[in-house]
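Suppose you are handed a protein chain with no further information: no name, no annotation, nothing but its sequence. What can you learn? This example shows the usual starting point.
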Amino acid sequence: MKIEERIASFVQLGERLKTAIDHNNDLFQVAKSKNGWFGVEQSKQAFKNWAEMLTINNLNQWIADYPPIGNEREGKRVGIIMAGNIPLVGLHDLLAVLLSGNIAVVKPATDDSVLIRFVIDQLYEINEVFKDKIDLAEKLTEIDAVIATGSNNSSRYFEAYFGKYPHIIRKSRTSVAILEGNESTDELKKLGEDIFTYFGLGCRNVTKLYVPKGYKFDRFFESIIDFSWVLDNIKYTHNYDYHKTLFLLNNEKMLDNEFVLVKEETKLKSPIGVIHYEYYDGEKNDLIIDLQLSEEVQCVVDNESIKYGEAQSPRLWNYADNVDTLSFLLNL
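A reasonable first move is to predict its three-dimensional structure. Written in structure tokens, the prediction is:
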């Protein structure tokens, strides 16, 4: 399959995902029944994001820096162990493997099996050649390389089991935001999207805020009030109630707006229902550089390089953990 044909197929996939938002409500209900974190609106948001990414212009821009991508090659069998923390989180790896002319041996996450299988079925319908390019598997066998995404614990297993193959193994990461104290209500509301989309489960969700000394959270709470819908999800509510009770029992200081807790804490990753914050001194740019060097940070939302509200809308060429997946695949 030539590169032009692959790109045309992905454009069609984007169009089908856009159509599915309004016409496949049963699909989203089934996904929700399998995974209580996959609210219907959250799944639709993932489909919308992917539909907006899979355009001819975006795909051509993605491959522009990879001249060898058009060369004919014998495809390698690349195992993909997908995460299931947010809807379609493994789709980028699947597209990268197919775009590079390789064969995807896919082990979907149990928590995201419904939606990713829907996408694969759409690719089969768009072009039957994909039936020879995508191999759904319970176990990864007869593979030449591996891309695996999981927790810090599972990454150790992946290293031990797949370390002999060329590999990309991703651990748990999170994202942070830096405030200067002069943000508008609209900017803070957009920041709320970075925090609450997918209930904070994604590696690009902001779980910690860096704020200047003396920062008052009143306007922040006022600006994010529309996100109280998170309490409609019983799993989120249980997390919020649990940590609120725990903090009260331990006499730990916190701020509470009745649907999210804000707590001063040095740790980057916060529990669901909680946002950590830390005061910073000195130059904002110095803080950004330090955070970008951290292996725990996926992205830094500073309203400049990544604006508030854009953390959950990465480009095709924004690679997880800043590891260039396409270069890795083209060099197998």
